[in-house]
Specification:
Length: 226
């Protein structure tokens, strides 16, 4: 991904517009700051949601793409028979992920790549599932990332999205909008809702359920229909 400004409205073939004010450089810079302490700060808080997401993979899932693999903190949770490819934009986070794979001898991890989630290099239908944990609120172009995951997952496969999404209405929605100017500093987009992602074409929402912290984190399960 280049560091070009992506402050625009995503619309057209990828469905409803998603306004984003983030840049690729913002994400890389944010996670360069977080990399040294990410596991210690967020590991325990997000553990339940990570395990819930991995457990939601259908039986027999053979190959998974984890988008935004970060430090690889979720990699040990996958079944040994499930092959995993991880990608992320942050070289600082990926350094920790590669070290984790080596130290824990995770033979089912095929590869760890530095890659733009909005421009995946994989062929169509290369995976049985795509996993995006805490990703859709930190990428500059959520609709494009969903479209790319849809492209590389086979028809009938799954896209699993974990995150804390803004409310669609009410006071929490107003708070999210008020926090938007701070999104660049925090490395996340405060305006993405579950409903917005569910409205994008090419997938069918199967479930929207609590995934951790009493429902603060949610798991969205999509079937790829293409």
């Amino acid at each position: 991904m280049t560091s070009e400004e992506r402050a625009r409205t995503v619309d057209g073939d990828d469905g409803p517009a998603i306004r984003t004010v983030m840049r690729a450089k913002d994400v890389v810079d944010a996670y360069a700051r977080w990399a040294p302490v990410y596991d210690a700060v967020f590991g325990p808080i997000m553990e339940a949601a990570r395990k819930t997401a991995v457990a939601a993979l259908p039986a027999g899932t053979e190959r998974v793409l984890e988008v935004g693999v970060g430090t690889g903190i979720s990699l040990p949770d996958y079944p040994a028979a499930t092959r995993v490819v991880g990608i992320d934009l942050s070289p600082d986070m990926l350094e920790k992920a590669r070290r984790r794979v080596a130290e824990k001898r995770l033979a089912n991890v095929e590869a760890i790549h530095e890659m733009d989630a909005a421009r995946l290099v994989f062929p169509e239908s290369a995976f049985d599932a795509a996993m995006a944990m805490y990703v859709m609120t930190v990428v500059p172009d959520p609709a494009r990332v969903m479209a790319e995951m849809r492209r590389v997952v086979r028809p009938g496969g799954r896209i699993l999205v974990v995150g804390h999404f803004a409310a669609d209405a009410g006071p929490r929605r107003l708070v999210a909008r008020a926090l938007t100017p701070f999104g660049r500093l925090l490395g996340w987009n405060t305006t993405i809702t579950a409903a917005t992602l569910a409205a994008l074409p090419g997938t069918r929402l199967l479930a929207d359920r609590p995934a951790g912290l009493g429902g603060f984190y949610r798991l969205l399960e999509f079937e790829v229909v293409k």
